[in-house]
Amino acid sequence: MSKVIYEPHPVHPARKAKLQAEGYKILDAIFAPAGTPLHALLDEAVDNVQVEAEYEPEDVDVVLEPVSDIPTKRARSKKG
Taking a C-beta distance cutoff of 8 angstroms, is the pair 39, 24 a contact? Predict the structure, then answer.
């Protein structure tokens, strides 16, 4: 399995070349699992962290009428 490092993008070309030469696969930091340290070499296993929601999600409004303002596709013109 390849080594993975999470870096904020865009990664500087010199840093990217260095990490790739060391055998790291670079992933954007926004995809890092919760609790994963950034800018750290992740050779060791990282414990999974359980994150609890700070609040309950709000109810979602239901659309009662379809939106009719959306333009429809026009038929191709017949030239010739």
Answer: no
Comparison of pLDDT for 38 and 18, the residue scoring more: 18
- Is residue 27 classed as helix, strand or coil in its secondary structure? strand
How far apart CA 35 and CA 72 sit, in angstroms, is: 47
Phi, psi torsion values for 4, nearest 5 degrees: -120, 140
| Cβ neighbours for 6, distance < 8 A, ≥ 6 positions apart | 27, 28, 29, 31, 32, 36, 38, 42
Amino acid in position 44: E
Instruction: Give the chain's largest Cα–Cα span.
Output: 69
pLDDT tens, residue by residue, 40-77: 544 445 556 666 766 676 666 676 776 667 666 777 77
| Residue 8 clears pLDDT 70, i.e. is over it | yes
